[in-house]
Write a structure and sequence with these properties.
562 residues, alpha/beta, 15-stranded parallel β-sheet
Amino acid sequence: METGRRAISRRSLLGSATAVAAACAASGIAGTRTAAAAVTAPPTSSPLWDEFRRNRYSHPQIPYVGRAGQRGGAHRFPRGPVVANVLAYGAKRDGSADAAPAINRAVAAVGERGGGTVLIPAGTYRIDDLIRIGHSNVVLKGAGSTRTKLYATKNLTELIGVYGSRYGGDKSSWSWAGGLIWLCPKGRWDSLTAAIKAKSWPFEGWTGNKRDEWRTLATVRPARRGDWCVTVPDASHLRRGQLVLLRLADDAGHTLLEHMAGGGAGPEAYVWDDKTKLTSYVPYEWPVRIAAVKRNKVTFERPLPLDVRPEWDPRITTLVTPLTGSGVEGLTLEAMETPQSQHLLDKGYNGVTFQCAYDCWADDITVRHVDNGFGLVAASACTLRRTRVEGRGSHHPYFCREGSHDNLIEDFTIARRTVPAPANTQLHGINVEGLSSYNVWSRGNMGMGTFDTHRGMPFANVRTEITVNNNGRHGGDASAGPLYGARFTHWNVTVTNERAGLIKIDQIAPYSATVAISAVREFDQIDVPDFSGTLGSRIEAYGQPGGVRPGNLYEAQRALRT
């Protein structure tokens, strides 16, 4: 993890986010040296990085993630003034009474008044219900993760009253959704709870993808991955600052899915039609703010994640009203300690989940004794900073799914398990699935787990400057299709137990990059290629963690000036 001196240098280096309207030019570089492992010789400049600088927005193996995170990766969070204190709403900080009603009343009152910060002073607060943030621009703020603790006595199965899976069988949906602190917009929460009361499976609006409600604002003319601007026939319904969806539908030949996998003979030969769970994630929907509108030209705050082609019926549409500008910080959420559940039978002692959220964040948050730690579900452009998962072990310490894009998880820790793992449990680590793209995990210390690419063909995700005791396994249903799409990058990764699985991906993932990872053994390889033929992937500085410049791929991309 980073020292204060390193953090200061990063702030001075990165500064505030640059304007995106002029982002089609390229120049300059500033690199950082990794702290993940000591090296005997000075690090050398990476040839792949030199290539990327010349072709940063459409490099064939490395995705551009320099604007991942809330407000394009801004270091400061937009905290509003403190306008409510939970003690004034009746919360007790000695754990003697249920504080959840008081906290929820304070959060709702502030949200209904337009936003602000709700303070939870130092102390221990018992919560017998979940805490929900359903309004934008609301921040729930403790006195620090070592000073404010919420002690949760119940799980989501008890609180919400359903146990089962929208996919059928006896699997628990709380294995991959929901949190005891749950940031979710009111409209989506209402549709979710109405479906629960009606015992309706699948839950309509579980992730926010109620596509029949959305309205087309403009059709889009052809463009290329990496373009910041698109042309539309009619821009009269579009305006600067508007949050919209870019929607790309697959065609009968599944050429959109092939494009996400990098194209070529392997993806073209792959059987897509029987991957029912994977195809349920399409259309691909990318939330993005409009930075500028000039006549028929629309500039986005991030470059295009994929090509835009006529056969994919490209549209700019409305979307579910998201949660924006909200956050949670400075507290520990500790669940009542119970044995870890058997695989896929989690009762829902879950930590913090962002659902249908954009430009939201968590900072200085610890979760303990949870089934699942931090969740991103149909969430985009969010930042999780200085987060920690510890205690008796988790199924998914971090999960990122259902079309979550452009998120940043940095300065994160997964502590070693405090008790032996019970039989029939599973540890996945840092999870990504469901066509989720352009997400970043940066500066992490993983005492257990793995880089869980969980099928559903996520693509263009980055894991950089991470130390991992690689003892987890991936998951994912066969009907969810490939483990990897194109442009996964593992950059400067120290593996402490020499296990290769899910870390060394040059022979597994298409058009991807494995750079400066530890030398690993190929025993217990738990992932195999989904696509036949040449993958087009690259490996560099193998066995040399910390041996190349830049040491942190995300920070180096952030430092590039346009």
